[in-house]
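Worked example (supplementary).
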Amino acid sequence: MKEKKYTKILVANRGEIALRIIRTLKEMGIKTVAVYSEEDKSSAPVLAADEALCIGPAASKDSYLNIDAIIAAAKITKAEAIHPGYGFLSENAKFAKEVISAGIDFIGPSVDTISKLGQKAQARTLAISAGVPIIKGSDGVVKDNFLLEAKKVGFPLMIKAALGGGGRGMRVALTEDAFETALQTAKAEAKIAFGNDDVYLEQLLLKPHHIEIQFAADNYGNIVAFAERDCSMQRKNQKLIEESPSPFVTPEIRKKIMASAVSLIKQAKYSGVGTVEFLMDENKNFYFMEVNTRLQVEHPVTETVCGGIDLVKMQIEIAQNHPLSITQEEAQKITCHAMEFRINAEDYEQNFLPNAGFISYFQIPAGLGVRVDSAIYSGYEIPSFYDSLIAKLIISAPDRLQALKRAQRALEEFKIKGLKSTLDFHRIILNNEQFQQGKTNTDLVEEIFNESKK
Amino acid sequence: MDTSTLYDFIKWAKTTDLQELVCKRGSVSVEFKSADTAFNSYTSKLTKVFAPAIGIYKSKNGKENADLKEGMSLKKGQFLGIVESHKKIVKVLSPKTGILKSISIKENTDVEYNQPLFFID
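After joint prediction of all chains, the assembly is encoded as:
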């Protein structure tokens, strides 16, 4: 395989991640192209890039999700590759396919890998064949003998509508006694919502931990896995705080879960950077959830904990057919404790209602062990069209206790005026004893939130 | 924005050599143009025809040929060319009946979304 060297890359994204990618490309001596919607004309990545092109109106579907417009921009600027960032088109196999057939490289895994891992059933089959544990469940849709099937899966369990989504047609049965009622409710709800009352059963983990493994794989079959990220501090599947190493994972479990991730990635013949997500129960048994075939929002946690490896640079190098430049030993190093706090333009007192608007003053914290990834500046107007993430505060310290103190200090220094953000809610979390002790699970944020309302 | 802020803003703007300045705060937006930009105000009174997509402008599309010349009269909805946006072809049509005053795009050149292509009186 011939190694190549890009001279110009188009970044098909906006906000902090577009700026973060542009920064690495500049360090690599690669020219940058930003694309933007009319709404983002004066945004930081547009000002930072060597070239910037307007690709459409504010609505994402006409700009950042507009495949033709993005490829047209790449052709006009003669960009050799497109970096999709996260969100938008980053896990869209159709987009990757179009990019490649236009003679442009897609920074990410192959089209086949994206589509295979994007389908839940296929990803599950792949996990089974790689010997990776999955959540126990019924063998597809259950048509009759419901209670018998339920007993096979075991309680507590979840009844899920086959055509379901968004929590509808989904019911929990904690015990056998509660099963019949829960089943009838789920079926009735599914019938109304999806016109079909087919359901399947899945084992329910109570208060699980969300543990994920970042990995990188090159085009020569080399794979490295990094120390886990613990993303248990989440609400309604939206992560708020991520940290590494996990206060819950032991060195033995770390070894096992990393090996599982590598085995799955090998089986998938994956090339690029990505993340395998797992759920972990109280007994530290872990189960495969899904693979994210892109860079993740919380990737700086890994960059920080392993001592400053640039994951975007790794993505570019892999796409250029370079072999991985680090060994497994180097990747799994834990050089500090790292935490990321997502600062969203949301009013937690109003159930995390997003609020767009004018930021009259924006001052980021600094000092030892503080990194802020953001595209916001004083006088910036937050558009209402896109997601509410305005900054990521990444803290590093020799251990978790010191990281917590540093986070507290940095959150005090962080000043955002003009709109409500999650800064205050992070301060509340930092004062929570259970969080301080590292006893996190995916219900804790909601519990702290409910407590704060009293 | 209250009037005293506005006054300070105008005073400051006059000390600069900026030709055009837009200040946006929430729903309030103030726009200034210097005397130099007034030169362009003749054209800006005309109806602008914007690029409907990013891509390459072409005056022909199959059998359709815009064959445009400055000074010619145009009918509303008349074909003015296309923008080839990768695999999508987006037609440029005259938004009104009038005289084509100015063509500011050359055949086979790149256009950004919303870039002014023609000016119609």
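Two points are worth noting when inspecting this output. The first strand of chain A starts at residue 8 and ends at 11. Residues 91 and 293 of chain A are 6 Å apart (CA to CA).
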